[in-house]
Amino acid sequence: MSASEAMVPAVEPSCRAPRRALLVEDDAFTRTLLADMLEGNGFETCACASSREALEAFEAFDPDVLVVDIQLERPPNGAQLAHALHARAPYLGVVVVSQYPSPSAANVNSPLPPGAAFVHKGRIDSADVVLQAIESVMDDRVAPATISAGVSDSLLGRCSAAQIALLRMITLGYSNERIARERSTTLRAVEQLVHRTYDRLGLAADQDGNARVLAARAYVAAFGLPSDDA
User: Fold this and answer.
1) Which of 138, 157, 162, 170 could form a Cys-Cys staple with 153, CB 3.0–4.6 A?
2) What is the pLDDT of residue 1?
3) What is the secondary structure of 57-108 as a DSSP string?
4) Domain's final residue, options 148, 178, 203
C-alpha cells in the first residue's frame, strides 16, 4: 500500500438503503395520503390501485412490507393478495388497513397471514400510526400491532363481516324484504341475522324500531354515512 493510499480514509455507507413498501389501495385520496406518509419517512414506495397491479409489480420492486386495504374494488381482495405475496416471500411484512373496526369484523373468508398488523382507517391521523404498525411487523421481538376503531370497536368489533354488511343496509334504510332481495336469501334468514346482530350489539330485538336506529348509529360512528351504490 502506498503512502497516498494509506491516507485515504475508509468510506462508510452514509445510511441504510431505504426500505420498500408496496402500497395497495383503490381509493385515490387514501393511496396518495399513505404514499406521502411513507415517502416522507424514508420509504421507497410503489403505490398500486389494485391487486393485479401489485402482483405485476412485486418481483421487480421486491418490497419489505405490504400495506394493503382489505376491501378492494376488484378481486383479489387484500387478504387474498397478502396470502399470495406472503407465500412467494415469507419475509414480507403485512399491514392491513380497513374501514372494518377490528380484525374480527374484517373476516373476508381469507384469514390474514400470521404476523399481519391491522390498522382501522379512521385511526390514520398521522404517519406515526402507520409507522408503528410497520415496525411491529418488521421486528420479530414485538407482537403485530392491532390499531382498532377505538370506542366504536367495543360494539362493531364484535360483529362478523356479514353483520357489518347488514348494518350498512339498515343504515341506508333498507327494509328486511329489500335486504333479502339484495342478499338473494329468504326473509326468515334476514330476520334471524338481524336478531343475531342486535344480540351481538346488546340491543333489545323486541323494540325493533329503536334497535334499528341504534344499530345505524353504531355503524355511522365507525364508518360514517354510507352511500347507496348498489
Assistant:
1) 157
2) 46
3) HHHHH--SEEEEES--SSSS-HHHHHHHHHHH-TT-EEEEEESSSSTTTT--
4) 148
